[in-house]
Specification:
Protein name: DUF3945 domain-containing protein
Order of helices and strands: HHEEEEHEEEHHEEEEH
Structural class: alpha+beta
Region (Disordered): 218-263
Biased composition (Polar residues): 218-235
């Protein structure tokens, strides 16, 4: 067995999102040296099941093996059928297991990609469930930087409490760029409401869901933000702070307590 090849494949599998639970099976197959082999991985995301087959093949000229692709089979909660998609592994533009799950769930993932000339560019990826390639895989749509979608600008249109804290804002942006549906706190009519959001680059917006995962249209969400803005403007005119106290009197306003963003 080529020890360096094993160590490289072990790390490649781990950092693609499959952890280290396949290490023993990987080593056993490399020792037996079949022309090609497949490893099975079982995972869950919430109530969704995502089982994957990892495909390895030996070089035609050396004892080196390559991790070429993995085929993910997604069974979403309450869905009748499974969805299958193959993600190819190479030097660049690889999709991790969590990114694959988010793409198969219809969400968009932001990545730095490399073009044929070797230049790096940034784009949002999203599956096109209306088109498949010759292998039966759904094609991917790309929304480049010049497409005009600015995540931070779209988030600012909503009354999201986490945006008030730099650290929480950074965590929120990172989570959404990975394709996650992220829980946040909306400030509406003087109260805090649990909401879930995800990036929607194709329509240059942020999709909002209520606490029960029912979609809220953007007009409702933005009206809540405008209402908050008007209320804040009235307080400023009256010399009142966020806590409703008269700060013209010299009293210090209460420090804003941020709520951590769940991962």
């Amino acid at each position: 067995m080529n020890e360096k090849n094993f160590e490289y494949l072990r790390d490649q599998v781990k950092y693609t999102g499959f952890g280290d639970g396949l290490e023993a099976q990987l080593k056993d197959n490399l020792k037996r040296q079949p022309p090609e082999f497949t490893l099975q991985h079982q995972g869950t995301f919430g109530k969704d099941e995502l089982n994957s087959s990892l495909h390895f093949k030996r070089s035609a000229t050396t004892d080196m093996y390559f991790f070429n692709s993995y085929t993910a089979s997604l069974k979403q909660d309450q869905a009748n059928e499974k969805m299958n998609q193959t993600f190819y592994i190479g030097k660049d533009n690889n999709i991790t297991l969590k990114e694959g799950y988010n793409l198969m769930s219809g969400r968009a993932v932001n990545k730095d990609l490399t073009n044929k000339e070797g230049k790096i560019y940034n784009a949002w990826l999203q599956m096109d469930f209306k088109q498949t390639d010759n292998a039966g895989n759904f094609k991917q749509k790309q929304f480049h930087e010049n497409y005009g979608f600015k995540l931070e600008n779209e988030l600012a249109k909503h009354p999201i409490k986490e945006l008030q804290n730099d650290q929480e804002r950074s965590k929120l942006l990172d989570s959404l760029q990975k394709g996650n549906r992220q829980s946040v706190t909306f400030l509406e009519n003087g109260s805090e409401q649990r909401r879930y959001i995800e990036a929607n680059p194709q329509f240059k917006s942020v999709t909002v869901f209520d606490a029960n995962m029912h979609r809220i249209n953007n007009r409702q969400s933005q009206e809540a933000s405008q209402s908050k803005g008007k209320s804040q403007a009235q307080k400023v005119e009256q010399g009142l702070g966020d806590d409703g106290k008269d700060h013209h009197s010299g009293k210090k306003p209460k420090k804003n307590q941020g709520m951590s963003v769940s991962q």
